[in-house]
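quick one, two chains, predict together pls
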Amino acid sequence: AQSVTQPDIHITVSEGASLELRCNYSYGATPYLFWYVQSPGQGLQLLLKYFSGDTLVQGIKGFEAEFKRSQSSFNLRKPSVHWSDAAEYFCAVGAPWRTPLVFGKGTRLSVIA
Amino acid sequence: DTAVSQTPKYLVTQMGNDKSIKCEQNLGHDTMYWYKQDSKKFLKIMFSYNNKELIINETVPNRFSPKSPDKAHLNLHINSLELGDSAVYFCASTGGEAYEQYFGPGTRLTVT
C-alpha cells in the first residue's frame, strides 16, 4: 500500500530565505508524486507533479521538486520565500488508473519578516 | 470558469439531520472523488466514481451515500449527522492521461 510521510509538521522561515519541505513515500512501483498547497480556508492547488522523465520538476509560484528514487523522496524547494507562501503543503502519491491520492499529513509553513 | 465547484461552501446543522453536498466538474473528466479533511488537516479518500460507477468505497459509515447522476456530478448525502462528521469535504476529479486531480474549494461541515 502507498504511504507518504512529511516529517515536519511546522516550519518557520524568514521572508527571502530558501525553503525545503521534505516528503518520503512508500510505493512498490514508479510513483506518481504531487505537491499541493492549501491556503487558509481555501481548497487544494496543485504546485507540481512527477510521473517520469527528468527528476527535477518545475512548478508554479517558483517551486521545484526533485524525485530521488534511492531515497524514496520528493522534496519541495523554493529559493526565496515570499510572505504569501505561508500555507499548508501536502505531498501526495498516486498510481495509475484513477487511483485516489494518498496524502501526507501536511507541513504548515509560516513566513516571518 | 470554475473547474470543480461545490455547494454549499459552509454547512452548519444539528446532530441527527440529513444533508447533501453537491459537486460539479466542467473538465470532461471521467473520475470523481470525495475526500474528507479532519480537524488536523489530514486528507483521506472516502469514495471514488468512474463513469458514474462506484469503484472505491473506503471504510466509511453507511450513513454516507454518494450519488453520481452523470459523469460531471458527484453528490454526497449524509444521514443522521453526528458530531464526528464535522470536517471539510473536498470533491476532486481526474481524467485523460494526466492523473493529476483537480480539487473543489471544499465544504466545511459543522455539526452542532
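The mean pLDDT of chain B is 91.
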